[in-house]
UniProtKB/TrEMBL annotation:
Provenance organism: Capsicum annuum (Capsicum pepper)
UniProt keywords, alphabetically: Membrane, Protein transport, Transport
Cellular location(s): Endomembrane system
GO CC terms: endomembrane system
Entry-linked SUPFAM superfamilies: ARM repeat
Protein name, per record: Condensin complex subunit 1 C-terminal domain-containing protein
Length: 94
């Protein structure tokens, strides 16, 4: 799989209009990352906004994987971190 362009295909799916596709792409990338030595996927400001939008529109399991990916993201500054927290806090409440 490392020799194919499968990762690029999964990364492209993060920009899909279907939020379930986005959640499933993140899930697949997270699973691949766990068994790989080298970094597979990094969240950029562009993918960050896609994930935050998909977070509110996908299933609970999709939300779990998106939240896990967001947990590993390093915010650029305090303002960005605060913005992310404002968008995900409702998903962390009972």
């Amino acid at each position: 799989m490392e020799d194919s362009d499968f990762w690029d295909t999964l990364k492209d799916l993060i920009s899909d209009n279907n939020h379930m596709v986005v959640a499933n792409a993140i899930t697949a990338l997270a699973e691949i990352q766990e068994s790989s030595i080298r970094p597979i996927f990094e969240i950029t400001s562009h993918t960050l906004s896609k994930l935050l939008i998909a977070l509110n529109k996908c299933t609970e399991w999709g939300q779990v994987f998106i939240l896990d990916a967001l947990f590993k993201y390093k915010a650029i500054d305090a303002r960005e971190a605060e913005n992310i927290m404002e968008r995900v806090i409702s998903r962390l409440q009972l």
